[in-house]
Design brief:
Blueprint lengths: L1 H16 L1 H26 L6 H5 L3 H5 L8 H23 L12 H18 L5 H10 L14 H17 L9 H19 L9 H21 L8 H4 L2 H19 L5 H8 L5 H18 L2 H18 L6 H14 L8 H9 L6 H26 L1 H4 L6 H10 L4 H16 L10 H18 L4 H22 L21 E2 L5 E2 L9 H4 L6 H19 L2 H10 L11 H15 L2 H11 L5 H13 L9 H12 L7 H25 L16 H9 L3 H4 L1
Antiparallel strand pairs: 1-2
Amino acid sequence: LLAYNTIYNSILFILDRNYLSHHSLFHCKTNTIRYFNLNLYHTMSDLETNTLLVDQPPAVAYQQPRSRKQSFMRKWGPALVAIAGVIALNFALIGGPSFSNVPALNEKQLFARKLGAERTAAVEAMDFDFEKAKLDRKMGRNFGSRNLSESDGGIMEYTRRRHRVLGDYVHEDVSDQFTAFGKWTVSIIYFAFWVFLMFPNWFLPIGRPGIALGGGLTMVVYRFILYSFGHGPVFDAEKVIILEPLFLLFGLMLTTIYLEKMERGGLFDKLRNSLDDPVNWKRSWKIMLMSTIGSAAVMNDSVVLIFSGVVVDLCVRHKVANSMPYLLSLASTANIGSAFTMTGNPQNILIVSLAYDDISWTEFLMNMVLPVLGASLVNTIMVFLWYGQELFPGSSGIGEHLAILFTGRKTPEIIALENAHQAKLAQNPVEESGGWSIWSKLQVLIAAIFLSCFALGYDVCVVSISTGCVLMVVNAYKHQHYDPRDDLTEYDAEGNALPPKRMYDMDGNEIEPEEEELITESETTLTEVDYGLLLLFMGQFLLIGSFDDTGVPQAFFAFTMGDCADQMTSVPCVYWFVMIITILSNVASNVPVCQMLAATFPYATPYDWMQVSFSATIAGNLTMLGSAANMIVAFQAAKVGDRSFTSERHAPFGIPSTILSLYLGTFILSSIHFAPECSEKLGTCVDEDEYYQYENANNADDYY
């Protein structure tokens, strides 16, 4: 057996050196040797004492297949075809740049637009009340309940408060204070740093946090220069930095760190082991299932923050050469799964809070189930097809992929992987756990309370930070009273223990060991928080906020929507609207886009917001910068040494997968939805008799 392996490795070495010039000549011989080696390994796999096969299983070679570098068209061809196809489809639906196929507004749409204009005019004409203004300042960025009593002002007072929020916080339009020079130069700076963030490896090795922070500070300084020379307004940098996501990420990092380090074999290790599987495609499927459910239950950012390191650890454990299928399985399904619920991602939380009408948790879920399932199916198929070589080793094509998935067929390579895994377990058996310890039970209890508070709609920032602090106290108590003390004994060159060192204070008194200062949590765990990730988001907030001030994204939206602006969620305009939202979400980020739409269309219906939520969320899979979850996965993976999750490797898969998922889901949502296409608070949910009654009334006050 030793002689055989020596000959086998020698032949592989020769093949590697002559691969490019002699690939076709040695192809048949290589396959013959490969299958002979597999059959021999299967024969000997039952011999647990054979350490050679355990230490060097042939499966490792098949995890790292050598392949030629892909050509440009093979790598980017599907993405280019998808882009060309979606543009052609939309032009065919709307009738090209002239929007010739877009129907005129019907009577109900004109009715809704008229009511909206009258409601806005009535709110702006309301008398100024000092007490109400004082209440507004106390409420800060919130506008309170949607269902005020008549004594509190009813719908009009709610509309006034919301109008103040939309005008003063969500979108304060200062674009008219810029000169053309100011707008162009700010936009150029923004897009320059957008390219730097998208492709950080093309430039100096600074890293995304440094690039984002440098871009944000550059924008602050440049905006001050523009203001000094009269080319732009004052840049309110403090206002554009949204603190809620920063607090949320800090709390989630605390929670993740303590769940992982509290106890070996505890909750975190159990979650990691539940995702493990010797078969590649099953491991990828488990990651996608966990990511989808977890993102719907809590939030996509928290899921990827917790499990990015777990996925990389599994890739290292199984010695995979390409971790992209597994990291993409985590990131893409986290974005898609977060579209299920109103608490799945930041833009959904913002949409529900800014919508004019009430949107309940169950109403949101019922409308999103079918389109999200459709998008998840498309994304899963794309992952299995795009990375079939890695996930189905030894498979000859799509037909065999399906046979492996649905009939349980196994290729020799898959059998080798399973045998190698079993042989490794035989040599290093896993110790049976004696059950759940008290600390593991405490972890489960705290995690259950954490998830329950998320689901009940409590402030996610407060919940995450509070959970991290509770885990900090529990871990500190366990470390001080239950964990074994670290052995600080020093030894000489011969292995003899040295006497402990004596320590003295300033007065020359000996310090007893019990009096020594304990190592605190701030010296250990808090240093593991990824402050670079927080700086990354702070820099992006500054860049995006300054770019939004110019009014360029708003002007782009108004120009490109054309005649579809007043019927953006009606067929055929909804497909054009989805494409514009996808572009803006990847250029200006999805949360600012939702803020812009809330200010531009203050009386949008619940169905309108469903379309906005779905398109802005799924669009995050298009590019690396399209979603915060993508950035977190890349950052967390790089922290543990895996830098394969890059924009150059993400975009060729992300573009076609996102476009297919997005348009299938949009078609399903526009065909089957339960959200009303009218606004009850605006008064557009009326039957024909009430509609004609309004038309015959002299003014809106008679109607109300």
